Amino acid sequence: xxxxxxxxxxxxxxxxxxxxxxxxxxxxxxxxxxxxxxxxxxxxxxxxxxxxxxxxxxxxxxxxxxxxxxxxxxxxxxxxxxxxxxxxxxxxxxxxxxxxxxxxxxxxxxxxxxxxxxxxxxxxxxxxxxxxxxxxxxxxxxxxxxxxxxxxxxxxxxxxxxxxxxxxxxxxxxxxxxxxxxxxxxxxxxxxxxxxxxxxxxxxxxxxxxxxxxxxxxxxxxxxxxxxxxxxxxxxxxxxxxxxxxxxxxxxxxxxxxxxxxxxxxxxxxxxxxxxxxxxxxxxxxxxxxxxxxxxxxxxxxxxxxxxxxxxxxxxxxxxxxxxxxxxxxxxxxxxxxxxxxxxxxxxxxxxxxxxxxxxxxxxxxxxxxxxxxxxxxxxxxxxxxxxxxxxxxxxxxxx
Length: 400
Known about the structure:
Blueprint: H1 39-47, H2 87-98, H3 106-116, E1 121-126, H4 129-138, E2 143-145, H5 147-155, H6 165-176, E3 185-188, H7 196-209, E4 213-217, H8 236-252, E5 258-263, H9 266-269, H10 271-283, E6 288-291, H11 297-307, E7 312-315, H12 327-333, E8 337-340, H13 345-362, H14 373-379, H15 382-391
Parallel strand pairs: 1-2, 1-8, 2-3, 3-4, 4-5, 5-6, 6-7, 7-8
Helix pairs in contact: 1-2, 6-7, 7-8, 10-11
């Protein structure tokens, strides 16, 4: 017999537990716990079990009777039967330990993903709370807060350097804290918003906001989107000054925040100057490099090779300066992070315009029947909010 459910607030954990007898208060049989969970959490949880019912293998969490209060999902499989007289208390104790999400910051999580795996970290570009919630519901391992999207959605303006630190930091803080111990958020930091003191202040504010990583670039302060023409960059030494200031700020706060050095020099000075600048940033302690605006696939492939084993980030903006490169191709090339800056805002503009035109022509919106107000709010954390109210003793949202 099997049933499957997944922990809503514990995205990295799942448990496989022989729990059928618990429905009637019976004894728990021995179980094999198999799934995906942080090893330290799994080991701590197993240590709470008596020796005679130690599971064969632990990597997950599940428990149907606690579904309403703690877990949304359970994967139950019967294994070799071994009964224990205090099975109810034992399983409860196990779950108290195992269900707790690991308290790992987004910055530490992103750093470990880079240091301890060889995966391509795919980040959809999000520009507001709704797009971030959709990305979370899709199960991405990380997200990217686009500066262009933030400027467009928050200020209603083109990405011409008009968004400042307070705009970007407040937006990033909101997105990063929708699920504080969930997928790490990488955020645009433009030029750092000033000289070295201001760059250090910007990094400190991003760290306190819960941002996991940021990229800082070498454009002049009067900057623009990296996929527009007419870009100008500062001297290499001024770029290095920004990198030094950013590195000092993260070190001073003993933060794992991932420092991504971005150069936009390709348009003005060419590929070779970009490589020179990125090598300089690497020597100063930048964790990742970003060459914005590759003009060919060959440039992208060569950059990875010339800077290896230093991790590189690829910004994929369709219909922009860079030819289309898929996630599979990027991984094969050796990129470690791939962001899709316009992945949510571009389709949103198309869909919103189409819907508004339908109102003008047909007099209706034409929303699909599956997307009710409640269904939309469920994407935005409705169930979590209801649970908070219920566990606090409230009854205001028992029915919605």
